[in-house]
Write a structure and sequence with these properties.
alpha/beta; UDP-N-acetylmuramoyl-L-alanine:D-glutamate ligase; Protein-Tyrosine Phosphatase, Chain A; 2 domains; six-stranded mixed sheet; 15 strands
Length: 426
């Protein structure tokens, strides 16, 4: 039955695309694809009717459902029947679709459903490498999206990732590279992260500002200012949106004004006021080695007052296959190198993070390990002080949002601000 439903919704989605011919923009990568997709959709929606990935619907079921404009009815036969019998409604001018893969062949299947007019490849990391022999094989799977881009289209590649840049030869259409790298065709520079100096964080306050200068291909430039956003990763998510918006004839004024409307989804490096005047950096949605390292760098960009600390609360990174032990150990060494003041690890797989961090120089007394996020949250509840900056991050299966919920100043807003708060997850 599952195979039949998948076949039928795919057939219906492909018919809609063939009939209405909307522009299809696809985003993939191991890191930052959801934030990038969200930024593109938000910016373009100021001028166009845009349909974008519902929730995290980025697989062989989710992509057709997004095109059809329905959420999954789960195990309801009549729910699926309703979707299959429904007529198309409010077909957008542009689809911005997120493509996620787990196995070889997945990307070809997704591109057969909707081949891109414009595609974006963010960064690659060993996440989802469990079913691939190597990171290079994972990269080749992602490259299928580049190969599938229509000849009159556009390919955007993250110039800060050599592995992504190395896939340029797969393109049969113009390529634009973006990033902080000096070789990027659209380049971000003069990055600044400004943080509060008094280090007492209360609900409703302004916590941080990111400023960056963006040089475009046509030699024009844009000065970007982002309130309550953190890190170069948020800039990397915005660059493809700016490039595509300019290509689709949004003026510089429209691009700049739309930046204020971009809000990254819960659990993606979002600053949230914590208990006792602390600040939480909520990155509990998911984790990969590249995003873990980037999050630690953001944490250590803060310079808290004398008695306040930079605290890293880390769950495991899933789906790393043969890279698991190596990547967890490297993360521990990086935490020590950056000078984290307190390292809290959660779950059995993270013991390697703590062990490597201690070997690399973090005093053991500045580390703690807990078996579950609930135990970690309860301990931190008593330990956190005014002005502490607390990064919480881990893969979906680590359930690190439970730590965030325990430490946030406004727990009644959990359903609004945190990931995985539905009844199914609870």
């Amino acid at each position: 039955m599952k195979a039949f439903i998948q076949q039928q919704i795919t057939k219906k989605a492909k018919k809609i695309l063939a009939t209405y011919k909307p522009l299809v923009i696809t985003v993939s990568g191991s890191v930052g694809k959801t934030s990038t997709r969200n930024a593109i959709a938000t910016m373009l929606s100021t001028k166009y009717r845009v349909g974008t990935t519902i929730k995290n619907y980025n697989n062989e079921f989710g992509v057709p459902l997004t095109i059809l404009g329905y959420e999954s009815p789960g195990k309801s036969f009549f729910g699926w029947l309703k979707i299959l019998c429904s007529k198309p409604r409010n077909i957008p001018e542009i689809f911005v679709l997120e493509y996620g893969i787990d196995h070889p062949g997945d990307m070809k299947h997704l591109c057969d459903i909707a081949s891109p007019d414009i595609c974006v490849l963010t960064r690659l990391s060993p996440v989802h490498a469990e079913h691939f022999r190597s990171l290079e094989q994972l990269a080749e799977e992602k490259a299928v999206m580049i190969d599938s881009t229509k000849p009159e289209g556009l390919v955007l590649l993250n110039a800060d990732d050599p592995l992504v840049l190395g896939l340029r030869g797969h393109a049969h259409t113009p390529v634009v590279t973006y990033g902080f790298s000096s070789g990027a065709q659209v380049r971000a520079s003069e990055y600044q992260l400004e943080t509060r100096e008094d280090f007492s964080f209360e609900p409703g306050e302004h916590f941080s500002t990111v400023r960056v200068h963006v040089q475009m291909q046509d030699q024009t430039s844009i000065d970007v200012e982002l309130k309550n956003m953190l890190g170069q990763t948020c800039v990397s998510a915005l660059l493809p949106a700016i490039i595509i918006a300019q290509r689709l004839n949004l003026s510089q004024e429209e691009i700049i004004s739309s930046l204020a409307a971009i809000v990254f989804e819960p659990g993606r490096m979002n600053p949230i006021p914590g208990i006792k005047g602390s600040l939480l950096i909520d990155s509990s949605y998911n984790a990969a080695p590249a995003s873990m390292n980037a999050a630690l760098e953001v944490l250590c960009a803060f310079h808290p007052s004398e008695k306040a600390r930079r605290i890293a609360v880390l769950g495991h990174m899933a789906e790393l296959g043969g890279y698991r032990e190596q990547e967890h150990r490297m993360l521990g060494m990086r935490a020590a190198e950056l000078g984290v003041d307190l390292l809290v690890t959660v779950g059995d797989m993270t013991r390697e993070i703590r062990r490597a961090a201690i070997e690399a120089g973090i005093p053991e007394v500045q580390t703690q390990h807990f078996d579950t996020p609930v135990h970690a949250g309860r301990w931190l509840d008593a330990q956190i002080k005014k002005g502490d900056i607390v990064l919480i991050k881990g893969s979906q299966s680590a359930r690190m949002e439970k730590v965030v919920k325990d430490l946030m100043a406004e727990p009644l807003r959990a359903a609004e601000l945190l990931v995985r708060q539905s009844k199914d997850w609870q």
